Amino acid sequence: MSGGGGVLGAGSSYHRFVHSAMEQTRLRTALAPHPSQEKFKCIKANDDSTVFGALSFSAPKVRLLRSLTIEKENSVQVLDFAAFSEPEYDLPIFCANAFTSPVQSIVVLDLNPLYDITLYKDYKEKYFRNLMPLIQKYSELLPWGGKITSESLRFFSPVVIWSIFEPTEQNHHVLYSALMDYYKVWLELADQAIKENDASKIAHNREAQHRYLTWRAEKDPGYPLLKKLIGESHAKDLVTEFLFEGVNSLGSKSFLDYFPEYARDDGTVNKKRSMIGKSFETRPWDADGEFIGGDDAG
Ligand code: BLA
């Protein structure tokens, strides 16, 4: 029950996840080190008690598979693990983010859809129709975390696990199991993915991924902590060249091209995370993955 013990439990479960996820990946595909690996393998924090772990690879069909862990003994534990396909595939983005302090763990685990599934029904059919049992399995054990930055919902799927819970061994055991279940599903989808040949569809996939990277590189909730731990310029490098690598190469549109509602009168980006505010007190999808939270926004 003690907070410290819980935090240690969280750290070991994040490392165990990264280790097992890499093992599962190697069983299915050939990983090559990503160019960003060399530069970021030894990130040094401002204080000696914080340890960073960074890994990045590419593989057939996979443009970037990267993992960041941060551990500060008896204080915080962070996991940021993501996988992005090559633009020739419209695969969802594997997204596992967890921030654990002595009092709580904040978790987002999802197969982030490349396309807004309320608009792209066929995309939803293709990927999410069959995945709904995943969320039925976890929605009680890892309950909806309450109000959330409204803009974030656009990047989430109906199987998203958004949860805030006490960092106990037991809860982290469940989280580990969910992380592995979701990652194995992503690996299976990657296995089955068929290469797109239509240039306009490939361009569409590329832009959708770039829009996602642009959002997260600018508005990720982890950024203030990264700045505190390694300083502003290193944090910026980590975000643009490692965590969301591709933001400066996959497309040329700017944050404000994609998200003009953040424009200030002087043409700069509004620093607020959200223009709409937080909403969605309860899970805004039903058991069939239909969005039911529409009226709640705003
Ligand atoms: C909080 N992290 C949050 C919250 C979300 C996310 C939704 C709750 C606050 C909010 O509603 O904005 C995560 N948001 C996401 C993700 C997406 C998104 C994954 O839009 C994807 C599209 N979190 C990390 C890392 C750190 C981290 C790497 O993933 C630290 C290095 C920290 N997250 C962190 C902290 C909070 C948080 C400190 C609580 C403080 C806050 O809300 O700003």
From TrEMBL:
<comment type="similarity">
    <text>Belongs to the HY2 family.</text>
</comment>
<dbReference type="GO" id="GO:0016636">
    <property type="term" value="F:oxidoreductase activity, acting on the CH-CH group of donors, iron-sulfur protein as acceptor"/>
</dbReference>
<dbReference type="InterPro" id="IPR009249">
    <property type="entry name" value="Ferredoxin-dep_bilin_Rdtase"/>
</dbReference>
<dbReference type="Pfam" id="PF05996">
    <property type="entry name" value="Fe_bilin_red"/>
</dbReference>
<dbReference type="GO" id="GO:0050897">
    <property type="term" value="F:cobalt ion binding"/>
</dbReference>
<protein>
    <recommendedName>
        <fullName>Phytochromobilin synthase</fullName>
    </recommendedName>
</protein>
<keyword id="KW-0560">Oxidoreductase</keyword>
<dbReference type="GO" id="GO:0010024">
    <property type="term" value="P:phytochromobilin biosynthetic process"/>
</dbReference>
